[in-house]
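Structure first, sequence second, as always.
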């Protein structure tokens, strides 16, 4: 299994395939990769799966989103 090999190579203990997929989705989204692109990279059948199940957004990203909205509406 590739994921187990990658985790072993990185010296990560008790890390399985789903942990790596969640981490990859979050890292891509946190760094500005389009949701559809992340969904396709993970080979999901829809972006809803990626967004609802795999993506975990940090407080900093949420704050940044709100700041962008505030600028867009003139606050």
């Amino acid at each position: 299994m590739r994921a187990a090999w990658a985790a072993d190579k990185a010296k990560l203990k008790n890390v399985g395939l789903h942990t790596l997929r969640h981490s990859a989705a979050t890292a891509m989204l946190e760094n500005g990769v389009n949701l559809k692109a992340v969904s396709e990279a993970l080979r999901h059948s829809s972006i809803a799966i990626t967004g609802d199940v795999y993506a975990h957004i940090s407080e900093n990203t949420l704050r940044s989103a709100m700041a962008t909205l505030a600028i867009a509406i003139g606050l």
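Margin note: Residues 2-72 form one domain.
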